[in-house]
């Protein structure tokens, strides 16, 4: 089945509230895949864009641990801008969706949980190639 941006969802991360500070937990079936890679983006300079690619088989779960940023997703026909700014919510991006990250606030941290380890051949980094791949 071809991925579309209508398939993308914001998932709530279970949160334990405490007056000393909240705790968010990602375990068991919070995300619909087994975690194989975790990385984070930080100190992104003002005006910089990250991402700019799609994955053939990898799913990702993006969380704004601190600050905010926009995720622009495209499926070849539609485009949507999603602002992430809450560490108890994350965006699930399925394979075959083009994504770009921009408008990072000062001090923003983007945590990415991925379904696969890094594989260069899973990336589509040219939008015209992506359109051919996704048609």
TrEMBL record:
Gene3D superfamilies: Jelly Rolls. Signal peptide: none annotated. Pfam families: FdtA. Residues 8-133 form the Sugar 3,4-ketoisomerase QdtA cupin domain. InterPro entries: QdtA_cupin_dom (IPR008894), RmlC-like_jellyroll (IPR014710), RmlC_Cupin_sf (IPR011051). It comes from the Bacteria. This is FdtA/QdtA family cupin domain-containing protein.
């Amino acid at each position: 089945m071809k991925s579309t941006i209508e398939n993308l969802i914001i998932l709530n991360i279970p949160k334990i509230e405490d007056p000393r500070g909240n705790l968010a937990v990602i375990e068991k079936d919070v995300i619909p895949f087994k975690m194989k890679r975790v990385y984070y983006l930080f100190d992104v300079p003002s005006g910089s864009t990250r991402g700019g690619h799609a994955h053939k088989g990898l799913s990702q779960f993006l969380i704004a641990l601190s600050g905010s940023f926009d995720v622009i997703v495209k499926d070849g026909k539609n485009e949507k801008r999603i602002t992430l700014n809450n560490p108890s919510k994350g965006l699930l991006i399925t394979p075959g969706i083009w994504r770009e990250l921009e408008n990072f606030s000062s001090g923003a941290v983007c945590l990415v949980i991925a379904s696969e380890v890094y594989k260069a051949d899973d990336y589509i980094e040219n939008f015209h190639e992506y359109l051919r791949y996704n048609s």
